[in-house]
Amino acid sequence: MIKTNDLSKSFDKHEVLKNISLTIPAHQVVAIVGPSGSGKSTLLRCLNGLETITSGTIFVNDHQLRATDKKKVRQKTIHAIRQDTGMVFQQFNLYPHKTVIENVMEALIVVKKQSKEKAKIIASQLLKRVDLQEKEDVYPSKLSGGQQQRVAIARALAMEPQIMLFDEPTSALDPELVGEVLKVMKELADEGMTMVIVTHEMNFAQNVANRILFMADGQIIEDAEPKSFFTQPATERAQKFLAKVKEF
Ligand code: ADP
Ligand code: MG
Q1: N or C: lower Cβ tally within 10 Å for the chain?
Q2: ∠ CA 148-80-32 to the nearest 5 degrees?
């Protein structure tokens, strides 16, 4: 479960998120779409404590993060939130000097304090889940972008998160590699993972998400079922956005 109350975020005087109040129940798959610069990444980063919020409150499960929290309290809450959420970025950020399986084992050993043997077994299962069992001992540089992103997903899953946040996970990929990453994401959705996905893949958003949030200028200006958003967007802003996206 994710909930924000009047969440705002400014960089200096620039207000990038404006009073966002939002509830995402467990098991929901939410796609966030909207023009570049509208605040999609910043919203996701706030949810995971990667940005400090300027005002308002965020709940992730029963962890409450308030803009007014003192630094020590905030750090403790963010640590707790990150135990429950995994995040996947456009850039895969794998450790280049570690093999695929070592990349997935890292958090299990360092954060979850598993033994090396146990971590290896779990990591191996996770790599199987993203269809990379044959690549365990390979270094990331030897993999395609799609394979690297699947390792990044396996690595995030190692923390056994209840929530997964994705920030344009396929935007850095060659078109022919997009499908294999979306397939893994769809499987996660089918298994009931709570997911928040910033994406430009409109077909995926329409077919896999339960809900579309359309952002513009730091606000959620549409919050709709996929079918209704894609066939009858309520605002002119969304109509224009969809018309542009469809040109590609
Ligand atoms: P989106 O992901 O929708 O493209 P972002 O959340 O990345 O949008 O950015 C929203 C706005 O916040 C943009 O105007 C961007 O320039 C600004 N912004 C994002 N990160 C920073 C930062 N670290 N410092 C200053 N401005 C930022
Ligand atoms: Mg972004």
Answers
A1: C
A2: 55
Contact 153, 183 (CB under 8 A): no
Ligand 1 site-directed mutation target among 8, 13, 18, 41, most atoms within 8 Å of CB: 41
Distance 39 CA to ligand 1 centre (A): 6
36 lines ligand 1 (CB under 6 A): yes
Phi, psi of 219 (to 5 degrees): -130, 155
**Cβ contacts of residue 103 below 8 Å, gap of 6+?**
94, 95, 140, 151, 155
Sequential pLDDT tens for the chain (248 residues): 999 999 999 999 999 999 999 999 999 999 999 999 999 999 999 999 999 999 999 999 999 999 999 999 999 999 999 999 999 999 999 999 999 999 999 999 998 899 999 999 999 999 999 999 999 999 999 999 999 999 999 999 999 999 999 999 999 999 999 999 999 999 999 999 999 999 999 999 999 999 999 999 999 999 999 999 999 999 999 999 999 987 65
